Amino acid sequence: MHSYGISLSVMASQILLIGLALAWGIHTALLISHGSVRFVEPNQLILWYEIVSTAAIALYGMTMLIVYLFAFRRRTDVVVDRSA
Question: Tell me: the pLDDT tens digits for 19-37?
Fold first, then answer.
């Protein structure tokens, strides 16, 4: 197995980004073809699962953004002396 240096969190965030792009594309295609979009979920269990899942994905995205920003800040704060 090859190691490409891609962490599991980066892979998950990219998969979620692709999923978001696909969902947005379907949403806009429905808007173009029908003029409006209306989502109805009569099953309360499924509705709450979707709400909690959406909140969890948003929380994951915000957490990973904060982690990456702090990692970038730590990496740019390091001064390397290459004079020797």
Answer: 888 988 998 998 999 998 8
- Distance (Å, whole) CA 65 – CA 67: 5
Describe the crossing of helices 8-34 and 44-77 by its angle, rounded to 10 degrees: 130
Q: Rounded distance, CA 68 to CA 74, Å?
A: 10
How far, CA to CA in Å, does 11 sit from each of 8, 18, 28? Answer: 5, 11, 26
Tokens of 19: 């999923």
In contact, 39 and 46? CB cutoff 8 Å: no
Q: What are phi and psi of 27, to 5 degrees?
A: -60, -50
pLDDT digits (tens, 9 = 90+) for 35-81: 988 888 899 999 999 999 988 988 888 888 888 888 877 777 665 56
Q: Is the pTM of this model over 0.85?
A: no
